[in-house]
Amino acid sequence: MPSAPLPPDEQERLDELHRFEILDTLAESEYDDLVFLASKICGTPIALVSLVDENRQYFKARVGLAASETPRDVAFCAHAILKPELMVVNDAAADERFADNPLVKSDPNIRFYAGTPLITPAGHAMGTLCVIDRVPRTLDDGQREALRALGRQVEALLSLRRAKAEAERLLMSLFPKPVADRLRADPQATIVEEYPEASIMLCSVDDFWEVVGGRPPSEIIELLNEVFSLFDRLAEQAGVQKIKTISNAYLAACGLPEPRADHAEAVADLALAMQREIATIATGSRKPFSVRIGVHSGATIAGVVGIHKLAYDLWGPAVDTACQMEALGVPGGIQVSEASHALLEDNYLFEPRGEFYVRGQGEVTTYLLRGRRAG
Q: Most buried of 2, 77, 182, 314 (most Cβ within 10 A)?
């Protein structure tokens, strides 16, 4: 029994299929209704929405069949995705591609198959909408066109699903999950909270514009993206919430929107990781990147502002103090306020830096964070 050859766009097809995030999902009535209609219109006992991945065909919706998937190497749909038009097999037992197929010779005893490929906007076939019978038969022109039309409706559902998934990812990238959940439930909700204990850090890439000066904008953005992507990964590992980027600076906080007792330690660990890992980025010049970081702990207000372009942001003296810690810091250093130092001194190493005037705070004692204590 010959297996279907792989489509020429196999890797791109699989990549796109996985981006839909539909494999092994729960049943959905919209897909179930379409296979029901396909079965009734074509007069077949079996109808499926079949999605072909690396090793199997997975049935997103089905009528008349108990199995939720079958191996790809015996799948009729693996043949149907090779061409953009409807594939009809009037008698599988008389077709050399399928005569010895176990799905023909035993349950479900397929003799008739018709499948219309489900094509993505990028032109890749994810699977099929297909109808199956246990006796040889044909489809008339009206049934063929109806099956194609129903297939287009499945394609529309898949595209809508992907659009919703991408919108969800965007929402989660812009807002912390608890905030995103509240916005999803009530887009008009006023979201603002005061957090009595949080730690805030501002990290800037020191001398960034000196290092990248004179380069094309595309190269500058590419480098910034590499830097901020690194910071995003480190922040996620540390459990610290990214707030926003400002030019070549990165604002983050911990202890909000979900309180966390070790907020200062999480921010300190993130700052040390940024200080260490920034050197791994190739700048394309003799001068490597370094960071200047400021950290402060205290009460903070956080919430969502804006009407058409919403943003999650922080306000209050604690934010200003963290920014001043960065502005008054040293290249390559992590400067923390006395408030943060008090929360960290048992487990971290510091060097006293002295006092600085901070607008609205007066003289503030500062320290340079050097690392974690051994043990």
A: 77
Which of 154, 153, 255 minimizes the C-alpha distance to 200?
255
Are 57 and 78 spatial neighbours (Cβ–Cβ below 8 Å)? yes
The residues near 260 (Cβ < 8 Å, ≥ 6 apart) are 239, 254, 266
For the chain, list the strands marked E by DSSP: 46-52, 56-63, 69-71, 87-89, 112-119, 125-133, 192-206, 241-246, 249-254, 290-305, 311-315, 334-337, 348-358, 362-372
> What residues does each domain of the chain span?
10-173, 181-372
Question: Which one is the CATH code of 181-372: 3.10.690.10, 3.30.420.10, 3.30.70.1230, 3.40.50.300?
Answer: 3.30.70.1230
- Give the number of C-alpha atoms closer than 13 A to the C-alpha of residue 124, restricted to the C-beta side: 22
Residue 81 has pLDDT above 70, yes or no: yes
- Which of these CATH numbers, 3.40.50.2000, 3.40.718.10, 3.30.450.40, 3.30.497.10, describes 10-173? 3.30.450.40
Task: Report the pLDDT averaged over residues 312-319.
Answer: 88
Rounded Cα distance between 306 and 295, Å, is 27
Query: Which amino acid appears at position 157 of this protein?
Result: L
- Check: pTM over 0.85? Answer yes or no: no
- Tokens 């199995």 map to which residue? 67
- Using the Cα atoms of residue 366, residue 369, residue 374 and residue 375 in order, give the sign of their dihedral: positive
Q: What is the pLDDT of residue 82?
A: 95
